[in-house]
Amino acid sequence: MFKIKRICCIGAGYVGGPTCSVIAQMCPEITVTVVDVNESRIKAWNSDTLPIYEPGLKEVVESCRGRNLFFSTDIPSAIKDADLVFISVNTPTKTYGMGKGRAADLKFIESCARQIVEVSDGYKIVTEKSTVPVRAAESIRRIFDANTKPSLNLQVLSNPEFLAEGTAVRDLKEPDRVLIGGDETPEGQRAIRALCAVYEHWVPKSRIITTNTWSSELSKLAANAFLAQRISSINSISALCEATGADVEEVAKAIGMDQRIGSKFLKASIGFGGSCFQKDVLNLVYLCEALNLPEVASYWQQVIDMNEYQRRRFACRIIDCLFNTVTGKKIALLGFSFKKDTGDTRESSSIYISKYLMDEGAKLFIYDPKVLKEQIIHDLSQPSISEDNPERVSELVTVTSDPYEACQSAHALVICTEWDMFRELDYEKIYKKMLKPAFIFDGRRVLDHLHAELQSIGFQIETIGKKVTSARIPYTPAIVGPRTAPTEPPTKKAKA
To answer: Using CA atoms, how far apart are residues 55 and 462, in angstroms rounded to an integer?
Structure first.
């Protein structure tokens, strides 16, 4: 059996960095080199301040960096020396041309494939680690076949990642399953066995699943689509709960105890974010349309539509409660990453809540314990968020390093990320410094246990999927759902 002794990973991001760090720690006899064209990112991986925050990752990296784990910008040398090459580059949703807004942009995958075949010699296993559309491996193989050399033998595998940010190290060390797809030829099966042997250093054989390439690629898209679907499903019920007086947490607990359903991913919130869910569902929609399955495409598109609706609905609720206007009002936004225990802001619901409030002229004071100021400003300055007017970000957004400073003289406090520290804040201190009436909008249900205490302090509380009963300042509610058309964000109020 072919034995893998050297691994090269192209892409030092959220997938490549943690994955290869854990492989290096669990397989000390294998030399692992992570390469990237981004010099500053590689410098960060070689420093005391890693480019991404993930609980436990720093300890893993420091335990093997310089021994059998290396980070480099010398991509050709790393590819040439490797027995196995992971492709872990970004596959963003296309922003132009055919498939715009839905199809995956595979330009980085193609670039990697061309570079691999150019510098390689002998036998090598090339493995997709990035989330890719079905039959992407076939595209890689066609590039290899069209540029082959007599001395070159490249085998293509699919080995999708199933990591959740915030628990990536645990997910890598104790995976539910490892999925490896490859050709059903003898050469393909030989490559599969070689990669299985790497994971078998710490993963039980019963959790390593082998399939054909297409099943492996589709399984990744389907898994993320199912998870996103559950979040959109419970969020749809949260709107119903607010209208009827039910509590979505109680409903989720009741249905989650049904063993056929289970309790995971039934947490109502302001919507899902991150690099995978929206991208993968949109990719699935596009795939279904391309295969002439419009009904299937429409079904999965509704998962995305419900997520967008939940964000708009929450923003409209803030505006309605603040007497139908937030123009010029200071609003504290606590949390900007798409979930706790990560600094990743990709597709974060906080970005869209901020956009809708900026459209109304609100002054936002944003605090997040892990997201850098530069990242927040960058995200909010994107043309689709800033309405092609990045100057308004500097006018309306202030990023603070202290949650209490963010809340001082604010009309409302909005919790957008479920960081544990937000449960421990001194809300009596915060209330004294806010304008009255002081509102809390809990988009993550992190303060449920404090409602009675917060109300006794004087806060008016609004949360997802529940009517918080108390004597409160009356307001004019939205007639049915948001005050805007389902596909339109709140319109920007004219400046006085």
So the answer is: 31
